Amino acid sequence: MGIVKVIEVIAESTKSWEDAAQNAIKEASKTIKNIKSIYIKEFKGSVNNNKIEKYLVIAKISFHVND
Questions:
Q1: Which residues pair with 13 in a beta bridge?
Q2: CA distances for 10 relative to 5, 34, 39, 46, 66, angstroms
Q3: Domains of the chain, start order
Q4: Are 64 and 34 in contact (CB under 8 A)?
Q5: pLDDT digit string (tens) for 40-63?
Q6: CB count in 10 Å sphere of residue 50
Q7: What pTM was computed for the model?
Q8: Going by C-beta distance under 8 Å and a sequence separation of 6 or more, which residues neighbour residue 25?
């Protein structure tokens, strides 16, 4: 068993919370390898004219650290 590291990120989308979570993984994977899981800590949204304008997630991403 190796070491697992966890980072916390904030990501957003104009489509959905699911898309915001996918954006978090997409951006993190640009500099991090071996991503194993995502834990959504918090959901948020901004509202304009009674409609959700932006979907935001605060997430923890875990990944294996190579020896």
A1: 55
A2: 17, 19, 12, 14, 25
A3: 3-65 (3.30.1660.10)
A4: yes
A5: 999 999 999 999 999 999 999 999
A6: 5
A7: 0.88
A8: 35, 38, 61
